[in-house]
């Protein structure tokens, strides 16, 4: 590929042609030669001038491209920064909304003392005898957390503390198969026990046959047995199973808490399960 003449080379050629024109112009005897030379030189000079202009335009275009590339990189960096800031602001907004809801719950239930804790992870596994479903939170004995304390959100009952470290605690969820909560139907006051099921569902058992239970009824903690405070929301009845030959009826419960998306929970710190064994002679 042929290389284009540089701008300085074109300039030198133009200067030499100009000097040649001056010499020919002062010598009248060389007029015919001058005319011939001009006829030959003028087209070449025009081509060289056009070439020089093209080279100048190309150089300017290259500079413009560099400038555009630099500005494009700056704009891309600004766009990336704005995107990151937008994501951060959305996270802050989401966290503030969660905290507002929790604050509303605390204000609506002033009889309890609460400690907010952030969920660090959820563990779903199994041991040789059972399935396990629990949370790990970032508060422990140093923050006043003790075994047995109930854990809630503004949507309802989450579970209770089963193990405590200095800065962490394990929360057994009410959907764990080993969990049981004394409960009642809000409308009819029918009592029973809500137990967790494999797969994350809830069933309310031991409901007397004569009591009324309907779909969409709200299920609350009853406070019987002293394991949980009264009137915490557990869930809503989705189905009722009743057979006359059986002593009790059952109800399937849909939890009001979304256990898959817990981020911040409240630990009720002024309630501990009653130790009835110490009261028995």
Structure notes:
By secondary structure, the chain is of the alpha+beta class. Helix content is 35%, strand content 30%. It contains two helices and twelve strands. The protein has helices spanning 7-26, 31-108; strands at residues 114-126, 131-137, 150-153, 156-164, 169-173, 180-185, 191-196, 202-208, 218-221, 233-241, 248-255, 264-268. Strands 1-2-5-4-3-12 form a six-stranded antiparallel barrel. Strands 6-7-8-11-10-9 form a six-stranded antiparallel barrel. β7 and β8 (202-208) form a beta hairpin. α1 (7-26) packs antiparallel against α2.
Q: What overall geometry do the principal axes of the alpha carbons give? A: elongated
How many angstroms does the end-to-end distance come to? Answer: 107 Å
Sheet/helix structural class: alpha+beta
Main beta sheet strand tally, sense and closure:
6 strands, antiparallel, barrel
Question: How helical, in percent, are the residues?
Answer: 25-40%
How many beta-strand segments? 12
- Please work out how many helical segments DSSP would assign: 2
Keywords:
alpha+beta, 6-stranded antiparallel beta barrel, 6-stranded antiparallel β-barrel, 2 helices
Question: Can I get a quick summary?
Answer:
With 281 residues, this protein is of the alpha+beta class.
Per-chain topology:
Blueprint: H1 7-26, H2 31-108, E1 114-126, E2 131-137, E3 150-153, E4 156-164, E5 169-173, E6 180-185, E7 191-196, E8 202-208, E9 218-221, E10 233-241, E11 248-255, E12 264-268
Antiparallel strand pairs: 1-2, 1-12, 2-5, 3-4, 3-12, 4-5, 6-7, 6-9, 7-8, 8-11, 9-10, 10-11
Helix pairs in contact: 1-2
